[in-house]
Structures are given as structure tokens and as C-alpha cells.
Amino acid sequence: MSDTASVYQAYQGNTYLFGGNAPYVEELYENYLGNPGSVPDNWREYFDALQHVAAVDGSHARDVPHLPVINAFAERAKQGGTKVVVATGADSELGRKRTAVQQLIAAYRNVGQRWADLDPLKRTERPVIPELDPAFYGFSDADQETVFNTSNLFFGKETMPLRELLNALRETYCGSIGAEYMYATDQNQKRWWQQRLEAIRSKPSFGADKKQHILERLTAAEGLERFLHTKYVGQKRFSLEGGESFIASIDELIQSAGAKGVQEIVIGMAHRGRLNVLVNVMGKMPKDLFAEFDHTAPEDLAAGDVKYHQGFSSDVTTPGGPVHLSLAFNPSHLEIVNPVVEGSVRARMDRRADPQGQQVLPVLVHGDAAFAGQGVIQETLALAQTRGYSTGGTVHIVINNQIGFTTSDPRDSRSTLYCTDVVKMIESPVLHVNGDDPEAVVLATQLALEFRMEFRKDVVVDIVCFRKLGHNEQDTPALTQPLMYKKIGAHPGTRKLYADKLAAQGLGETLGDDMARAYRQAMDAGKHTVDPVLTNFKSKYAVDWSPFLGKKWTDAGDTAIPLAEWRRLAEKITLIPGSVTPHQLVRKVYDDRAAMGRGELPVDWGMGEHMAFASLVASGYAVRLSGEDCGRGTFTHRHAVVHDQKREKWDIGTYTPLQNVAENQAPFVVIDSILSEEAVLGFEYGYASNDPNTLVIWEAQFGDFANGAQVVIDQFIASGEVKWGRVNGITLMLPHGYEGQGPEHSSARLERFMQMAADANMQVVQPTTASQIFHVLRRQMVRALRKPLIIMTPKSLLRNKDATSPLSEFTRGGFQTVIPEQDEAIVKKAAKVRRVLACSGKVYYDLVKRRSEKAIDDVAILRVEQLYPFPHKAFAAELKRYAQAIDVVWCQDEPQNQGAWFFVQHYIHENMHEGQKLGYSGRAASASPAVGYSHLHQEQQKALVDGAFGKIKGFVLTK
Fold first, then answer.
1. Cβ neighbours of residue 767 closer than 8 Å, sequence gap 6 or more
2. What are its cofactors (predicted)?
3. How far apart are the C-alpha atoms of 97 and 54, rounded to whole Å?
4. Rounded distance, CA 535 to CA 545, Å?
5. Terminus-to-terminus CA distance in the chain, angstroms?
6. Would residue 391 count as lying in a domain?
7. 195 and 258 belong to one structural domain
8. In sequence order, which residues have a C-beta less than 8 Å from that of residue 187 and are 6 or more positions away?
9. Are 822 and 806 found together in one domain?
10. What are the strands of the beta sheet with 818-819, ordered from one edge?
11. Are residues 486 and 574 in the same domain?
């Protein structure tokens, strides 16, 4: 069968091709004839195919333009379809109206949500949407009883009078739920939503038990807020009042997800309603929350954090069995938690071998202003369907207060119609729902979860509600929104409205009051409000972090590997199958690495990295490496992925040697990330926080690019352990080095990490040899310590022969926090040394070169490879060799106000001997990390190296 014939036959079964739709399809075909690009791809494909299908009389489209469409409908009629009537003369008006009806249906599906009843406060009138008015299409009152074909709808009828059709469309698309989904390119997804919404006209049909449960959840949500408001007057809690339906929503999400086989749910949310979630969803004991308000909670963390940043985990029962809930810790940067949650979920999915996310569900709760305003939203959404970061779809819930912080006018809070419009970039559907209709909120939640589970795609429930109090409880919102807060002040509350509704339905006159009284009694007793919470349940997928707690950074572990193992691994990772044709430059790299494995060449940086990864995965430690260009390496030193020069398709056109090290090896994953720093680093931090047995590495393309992820570094990596007790072993590789590449490609801002370094919270290293990168990467996993590792990786040293290492340095020894003087002649004459240069990084090789050129033999050079925690013992031991030296000089490439100088000077001074002076040689203080002119860079570099050996000005400390 030809391609055109197969397309033609496929479309014969399409539901659009009923006789009643003939005018609509003919109009599409008319547009196609004028401009093929003006119709959807699937219709264009169909019309293209029809051009080559002969009619029963042998004519073709070139003879009669509309003949293919006429033939199509004639064929349908023969097969038992709706009788085809070709409109001529007086019937042409009926044909026009049929087309108009299809346009009217499409309008309600596309923009009906703009006329939906969504605002509980009813502050503005519904907008005028001409496309939703039958008069816009030429209909009059006389047409109300005219019957039209509705076979492409899901109202359960093949035909409907216009009046009934309009009522059905308005109930479905303009009630308490306003659905946006028609921008999806996938027809199956659009038809899915049409079937789900139109079949029930977007109205739930819950039984009495379900309704009472919804009321109970609303009562709990309101009850906690009112209890706290009276007991802890004026204390910040970021109340949920006005948005109580959110608790009913997330409760439904958890219970329904459990019934569908989900076993873990990870939740990320900011402050609004967080305490309510902790108590009424997660099952935190109210008495424990009260203790935090009373400042009597145990202080078992070095720093701690405010109560509305705290995370929590628990296990609850659902119809499908126990579900583990995790509420992620989140700082005041609101949406920054999003990628962290996604990374945490991906780690759990990988641990369960659950690639589709059937067992693990990410849930992100947003505020309306933050959802529209913060860039990390877009970055995280961009990860959603990529292979290295997909989590099988996220359910987003927006607590839409319609106000943000103090901005009540949408013109000032965003530039889009809806706060959720950013999700259209990945074609995620959105259900806008009136928060004062809790049954509609629960229905929207059910539909959102069903969609996610079926299509593995993000979906949004936008609960349009209000904020009863200010941004926090010390705020007076009427100062800036007087009219809005008059309406809020007159609002009886969602719980009261729903209780009255159920009472009117005969479900109990005092039901609402009885529930409120019972909840208040539970609060007074400090009892659980979630029933039942499982206290003894332990999942087999839970991670035991106890082996990594209480360890000292000085416990280095054994990072050397036996020579036989080295050779075996080297052979494995340098083998490229004959079926793969590498680029000639890559072939040279792998041939050289094979020689390095045999000990015929010194080992370079790329081989040192590869051998660290290979030895780890062979030992059962997984490796996950991500970042921009990290597969080949920004500076093309890595080549972890070999691209077949004869094939480009990813799944058959690449080969990754590190995935073929051993039969039962741990996974090696390398991901060329999207062009994002903040979301990707947040994702990797979240992944590392849930998998201590995977070496998780984020590599910046240039170290400076970490600027784009500074929030993740500040709020999570540097302080997560002291604030929240969250142990994390993430590794950052930040290319750093002054090679004349300008201000944005020189510095990884070492000084920022040094400023944040305290409480042994992280490791900051700047290795200078291939063996050093090998040992420090292995050390990160081999020793029982999980702390963030910040590596200032080089650029020029990647191919510098002086930075290579002999094979012996890999089969014995370990990471050297301080590398001693390497010139044996100077070491032997230690008593004659008059100056000790201490440095870190690439500048070491510049200093050695100058010393050799000038034949200087009374200056020793020490390399500090670990800047934090500072290796006092190792540094003091090396400095002691040169007790007769007068000067100790710190030399660095960075400007004086940057780099490590202001931080290490005190450490160095602490280890100096009586009479020694401490000085500095480097670039002068600068507002910019580096100069942009090559000649100026060279002048500065020469001056700082000369200064290290010459007269030092401005000694700052004397021992």
C-alpha cells in the first residue's frame, strides 16, 4: 500500500468525517487550497494524500478542486455514515450554519475558560468574549431550536438543538472549572480532555461520604489557622485562610495517587499554607508545631531555620497501600525548591527502576505571583521531557491569591493573561478552578492526576482563591488593597459556604459545627489530625544515612587501586567496538589513553577522570555527570561519549565506554544538559540528597556560569546541613584559571565559596595533577563522609604535560591536601631557603617555570590543593621544613580582593614560625574578575610572578 493511500484510509475512520461536518471540512480544504500551511499538519497530510486518490469517475483534484472532499464524504455515506447533503441554493445557508456551529464549539474549547466563574470575590465582571456569542456567527433567537450534528462532542448525543448545545458548552467550559488544553499538538491529549470534561459537563457527582470528607478537610484547614491566630497572635505563619480548598485538593491527590499505585510523593512548596500541610496532610503532631511557636523545640541543628521552611516526611495509608510523603525543605526563594524536588524524585525513580514514574510522583505547589515571576519555573519546565531529567510528569497546584505580595493589579504582577501561561511552553494543560467550589477543586485534582498518569506529562490545577490576611500576619493589606479587602472581610469563608450547601442537601444541619468543634478539641490536645499516620512502616527503598553521619573530613579512605585492576579497567574504557567509527581526533585520544593504561605514557587529566569513574562504577558506586557539553567536555578533554561518524541517531550513533566496564557494574550516566545552571544544579542537588551511593557531579561550562545558580549554592549546598540537617555529597566541577579569556571566562568565584565555608560544611579543592583529580573523585565516595565537594578544575592544565602523573601515583597514595616542594635539590638545602611561596592552582606552574628560568635555588613552592577545610597539619609540616625562611608569600592569579587570599592568610599565619613575615603577590584589587585585553593580562601575569620572587610590598602580618 502506498503512503498516500494509507493516509487516506486512516482518515476514513476519523470522527471528523461525518456528513454533518462536511461544511467545516470543506472550509478547511478551501484554506488548504489557498495556503497549505494554514491548516493543521494532520489535515494537510490528509489533503495532500487526497490529491492522488482518483474519484469513482476517474477525475482528479486538478479538475474539480473540492472533489477529494466530496469523495471522502460520499465514501463515508456508503460505509453507513451520516447521510451527506450537498448544500446548494437554499441549503447553502444551512451549510454555513453547520460550519458556524463547529466554529462555536471550537471557540468554547479554546477560550471558554475566559468566561468561567472562577473568582470567589467576584471583583470584576466577566469579560466580553465575542467568539462565545452565537450572534458572532450570525445566529439569532430563531435558530435556538435548530438541530445540529454534535458527533464530535462527548455530550452523549449525536444531535442537539442549538439552545441545548450552548447550555452544555457553557456548563462544561464556563462553570467553576475553566480548562486550557487546546494548544496541545497531540490530538489524543485533546480528545482525552474533551471526553473527560464534556461527558460530565465538568461537574462532579460525589456521594454523601465523599462530600463529608471534603468538608472535614476544609474544617481542618480553617481550624488550624484560626487556632494559631488566636493562640499565637501576630506571629508569622503565612496563613492559608481563603485557600482552604487546597488542603482538600492535596488530600485527594495523595489518596487517588496511592490507589493508582504511587508509593512515594515528594512535595515542594513555599510558605503559604505550609504549616497547614505539615499538620493536616503530613501528620506532624500539633504539639510539636506549638513547641516551635513557643520556642521550646529541641535545638539539635547548628543553625536551624524558621518553622515555615521546615521539611517533613511521613507515611500515610491510601486505598492502594502505604504512601511515603516527603515535604522538601525550602528557603525564602520560593520556587527554587522546584528543581530540587524533581531531582529527588528522579533519584527515587532510579532506585526503584521506575523509569516512567509510576511509583513516584512529584507535586509542586506555587503562589500565583511567583509562578509567573521567577525564572526557575521556566528552567524547570524545560527539563520536564528531557531524558536525563524527566520525572514522568509533575502535578502543579497553584494557590492563586490573586494578589502576589502587595500587587493586586495583574498588569503589575505579570505580562500574561494567566499566572500559569508559562506552562504552555511544554503544552501542559491547566485547570483553573474556583476555590469556593471545593467539589470542583477535588474533581480538577482527580482529572489532573489521571492525565499525568496516562500521558506522563506535567499538568496544572490553578485554584483561584484569596488571601484573608496579609502577606504575613503582621501585614495590613488594606493599606494597598482597600476594596479587595472589603470584599474579603465580607466573605463568610469557603468552609461555611460548603457546610451550608451540604446542610441544604440534607446532609446534616449541624455537621459543619460538629466538625469544627471536634477539630478544636484535637488541637487543644495536640493530637494527630491525619488518620491514620503509619509510625512503624519502613519501605525497602528507604535510604539509610546513618553510616555517613558524625564522620570527620580527615578520614580519607583508601583511594589507590591495584595495578592489575588499573590495567583491566584501562583496557575496558579505551576499547571502541569495530561497529563504531570515531572521529580521528577522538581515536587519537583513546589510543593515547590505552598507552597510558599500559604505563607507556604519563596519565593526563582526562584519563585520570575516566579511571576514577571506571573504578567507582566497578565497585558499585554509580556516577551521574551532567552539565553543558559535559559528554565531550567544554574543552574537549573528556570524550566520555564517542559519536559514530557514520551515524547521528543518538540511540545507535554513540558509544559510552564507561557503561561497559564490568558485567554487573553500577550505572554511569553522562548528560549534556539544557542551557540552564539554576534548575540543573538544583536538580542534581535534589538527586544527591536522596542517593549517597551515587557520585553526582554538576559541571559548569565555565566556572563563572555558577553565578546563574548562586541561589542553589547559597541556600542549599552551603547551608542545607546546618539549617536542616540535610547531608549531601554533590560535587561541583567549576573550570577556573586565568588564561587571558576575559572577565566572564576566568574565575569560578573561589572567594564566594571560601566566604561560605564554615562548620566543615563543604570541601573546596583546586587539584593540579591528573592523579589528584583521580584521588579526590574517588575519595568523595570511598570515605564514609558526604559533604559537598567544590572542585576548581583547570582549563590549560587539561593538556599541560607538566600536569600529567606517572602510573605509580594512582596505584598508591591518595589525595594530597598539600603538595610539597617537588625539586629534590631545594628540599635537600631546606636550611638555605629564604622564601616559601604558597599557592593554589595553575599559577604554580608559572612560578616553577620562572624559578627555573632564573635559576633560583632559595625559594620553595608549596601547593595548597585543599583550601577548605584548611589542612593545618599538612601545611604546618611542610612549612616546618623551612623554618629558616624569612618570607612566606601567598601568590595567586586572582585579584587581591578575590581568590583565596583574605581567607587563607589567617590559616597561613597560624602555622608560621617566629620572625617570619607574610606577604602577597598577585593582581591588584579589581571590580572585575579579570581583564579583557590579552596584552594587559600578560603584563599582569608577568608582574605577579616576578613579584613572587622579588621585593614584596605591603607585608601584612608578622609572626
1. 773, 776, 791, 793, 815, 865
2. thiamine diphosphate
3. 30
4. 19
5. 91
6. yes
7. no
8. 42
9. no
10. 818-819, 859-864, 835-839, 887-895, 917-923, 957-958
11. no
Listing DSSP states for 640-707 in one string gives -SEEPTT---HHHHEE-GGGSS-TTPPPEEEEE--S-SHHHHHHHHHHHTT-TTEEEEEE-SSGGGGG
Q: Looking at the structure, do residues 480 and 572 belong to the same domain, yes or no? A: no
pLDDT in tens, 571-593: 999 999 999 999 999 999 999 99
The strand pair at 360-367 and 395-400 is best described as parallel
Q: The domain that contains 848 carries what CATH number? A: 3.40.50.11610
For residue 604, count other CB atoms closer than 10 A to its CB.
23
What letter would DSSP give residue 919?
Answer: E
Query: 407 pLDDT band (50/70/90 cuts)?
Result: low
Based on the number of CB atoms within 10 Å of its own CB, is 933 exposed (0-12), middle (13-18) or buried (19 or more)? exposed
d(CA 888, CA 882) in angstroms, rounded, equals: 10
Identify whether residues 49 and 146 lie together within a single domain.
yes
Q: Counting beta carbons within 10 angstroms of the beta carbon of residue 559, is it exposed (0 to 12), middle (13 to 18) or buried (19 or more)?
A: buried
Res 222 pLDDT > 60: yes
Segment 128-138, tens digit of pLDDT = 999 999 999 99
> What letters, b where the CB count within 10 A reaches 16 and e where it falls short, cover 16-41?
ebbbbbbbbbbbbbebbeeeeeebee
**792 neighbors 841 (Cβ within 8 angstroms):** yes
| 97-141 residue pLDDT tens | 999 999 999 999 999 999 999 999 998 888 999 999 999 999 999
Say what the pLDDT of residue 82 is.
40
Amino acid at 823: D
Distance CA 408, CA 485 (A): 11
37-41, 476-480, 670-674, 721-725: least confident range? 37-41
Under DSSP, the state recorded for 124 is S
Record the pTM: 0.88
Structurally, the chain folds into a number of domains equal to 4
Residue bearing cell 583565596: 900
Q: What does the pLDDT average to over 536-554? A: 86
Which helix H or strand E contains 400, and what residues bound it?
Answer: strand 395-400
The pLDDT tens digits for 169-208 are 999 999 999 999 999 999 999 999 999 999 999 999 999 9
Q: What is the 3-state secondary structure (H, E, C) of 690-710?
A: CCCCEEEEEECCCHHHHHHHH
Residue 326 is predicted with a pLDDT of 94
Q: Cα–Cα distance between 906 and 344 in angstroms, integer?
A: 39
| 795 and 824 share one domain | no
Q: Which three cell numbers mark 597?
A: 593504561
Distance CA(500)–CA(371), nearest Å, equals 33
Does 492 share its domain with 366?
yes
The residue among 302, 303, 372 whose CA lies nearest residue 334 is 372
Placement of cell 638545602 in the chain: 829
pLDDT above 70 covers a percentage of the chain that reads: 87
pLDDT per residue as tens digits for the range 856-871: 999 999 999 999 999 9
Kindly report, residue by residue over 337-377, the tens digit of the pLDDT.
999 999 999 999 999 999 999 999 999 999 999 999 999 99
Confirm if 61 and 67 have CB atoms less than 8 A apart: yes
Q: What backbone torsions phi and psi does residue 906 show, to the nearest 5 degrees?
A: -75, -35
- Distance (Å, whole) CA 551 – CA 785: 6
Determine contact, residues 323/291, Cβ cutoff 8 Å: no
Domain ranges, residue 475: 225-526
Give residue 397's region: left, alpha or beta (phi > 0; psi -120 to 50): beta
Q: How far apart, in whole angstroms, are the C-alpha atoms of residue 73 and residue 87? A: 13
Give, as one character, the DSSP assignment of residue 900. Answer: T
CA atoms of 217 and 249, how far apart (whole Å): 9
Q: Which CATH number covers residue 334?
A: 3.40.50.970
Distance separating alpha carbons of residues 175 and 462, to the nearest angstrom = 14
**Shared domain check, 785 and 744:** yes
